[in-house]
Amino acid sequence: MKLLLIIIFAVLILIPVNIHAEEIPKWIKTIVGWWSDGSIEDDDFLKGIQYLIKEKIITVQKTSPANAATTDGIPDWIKNNAKWWSDGLIEDDDFLKGIQNMVERGIIQVN
The whole model's pTM is what? Predict the structure, then answer.
């Protein structure tokens, strides 16, 4: 819930627009870093990412629910990528590929 409140506050300050990977706002990277360090629960992280997608702050391709294989949670490699991304060790595109993977697997629901 803390993550969602932070995101909503930040969105109220910023005008949400469709962005490309190189334009991901820095505050998102900070929040992802908190999640990767365990300061934010997985459920709050997923709700926050869903909100960012819904508000078109992060753009992903929608996947047909019939093709999505729901899984029991966030794969460990996603959290590792999030940590590396928040530390500046991998590019924005690599982080977004992980988000896209979670959409395709049904972990993140996109309406």
Answer: 0.71
| CA-closest candidate to residue 78, choices 42, 54, 40, 39 | 42
Distance CA 61, CA 29 (A): 21
User: CA 1: distance to chain centroid?
Assistant: 15
Q: Which two tokens stand for residue 29?
A: 């990277």
Please give the pLDDT value at position 81. 94
CA distances from 65 to 42, 43, 103 (A): 21, 20, 10
DSSP3 helix / strand / coil % (the chain, rounded to 5): 55, 0, 45
**Number of alpha helices (DSSP H) and beta strands (DSSP E) in the chain:** 5, 0
Question: What residue spans define the domains of the chain?
Answer: 2-104
Cα(66)–Cα(78) distance, integer angstroms? 23
